[in-house]
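quick one
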Amino acid sequence: MNGSYLIKPVLDADYPVISHGKGVFLFDKEGRDYLDASSGAVTANLGHGVQEIITAMAEQASKVSFVYRSQFTSEAAEKLAEKIAEMTKGRLEYSFFVNSGSEATETAMKIAIQHWQEKGRPTKHRIISRWMSYHGITIGALSMSGHVARRARFTPLLEDYPAIDAPYCYRCPFNSTYPSCGLACATQLETAIKRIGSEQIAAFIAEPVIGAAGAAIAPPEGYFEKIKAICDENDILFIADEVMTGFGRTGKILACDHYRAEPDIIAFGKGMSGGYTPIAAAVVSEKVIEPILNGSKSIMSGHTFSANPQSCAVSLAVLNYVDENRIAEKAEETGRYLSSLIKRLLTGFRFIGDFRGKGLLLGIEFVRRQDTKEHFPAAAGITSLIIETAAKNGLLLYPSAAGKEGIGGDAVIIAPPLTITKRECEELVRRLRKTLEEAETIIR
Ligand code: PLP
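structure w/ pyridoxal-5'-phosphate:
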């Protein structure tokens, strides 16, 4: 396999070898630079080489490398949990640390189920999610996900969880328009609960802004408020999957803060460490933990590396940096600037269907015809074409899907590090222009 023993996403692919990164740029061994407009997998929120984080990493490594969570806690883990409680304004106060976003959503799911068990309502064990969602790759997290391509090989193993439509206004699942639609996509949750019975359902899970399965789809005004009201009326917990959006990505510390809908549990990942180390968390409110505290006193989940002090120290340094440097506000401001540049650029291309997003989580959807919103045929591989052309031009974009029910459709996410400067935004757009111009000659 190209002289490599490493199992890569495409086994025989010839990926460039990265030698180092600085700020929003990555450099390969051949000396080529890449403007990382996807922050890897929407992860490297602070870019590369932030000295405060590197120092925290080295300091922790010289103190203790590992403690097991069932024997000890650590200063780093305690301080990180306190920092998260502070950053969520004390509303979600209790953190359970894991190592990936998939583990975070799966832990959130398990805590929700256990919450109801310990309240004497064990039949509440199913999770409702949405088509056009991605909550992770492990079997539990994938069961809650509507990302059809990632589910396909494993459907016989997946839990048959119900899913409702996404608030995808560009291709409204109800062929309606906002606001005359009356938020039918939110009301659908009520219908699903009635059909299944609320005594079967532990929680509803959703990304505040849809990422991998929809390319930065933010819901219309009032959507999450309605969802939350339906959850409350039916004794169903609301899990916000902030793995991609948490800690500043959308221009607020929590993407949920764009709405007046308080989650009961939040899953964090990615931006929690900005990619400097693997760490993620399921963070819960007092209401959620209370019956467990008054009951078994133990959350039935966990991993060897949960609350690893090294990861906790790095995450703490990242969150301190986000807080002290007002990274969320900066993302909001830079997001507005970058959006205006991209919007202007896109008017010149006929294969652009929609441009959307919040803060620095932006998405472009590609269509064969703008008037009918017709998709390109899957075999045309438009998303791959754009991603590969961009990479050749030294620009990294993140692939996404954009079809109703998580099927088909071409889209990319643009989500550079939140520290990107205005000059770098202009360079990003210059490379994007070149990419789209080249792609256009092939698409024609
Ligand atoms: N949840 C969301 C919203 C995500 O975007 C992702 C990853 O892209 C996950 C969960 C899974 O996270 P991980 O890849 O760290 O397991």
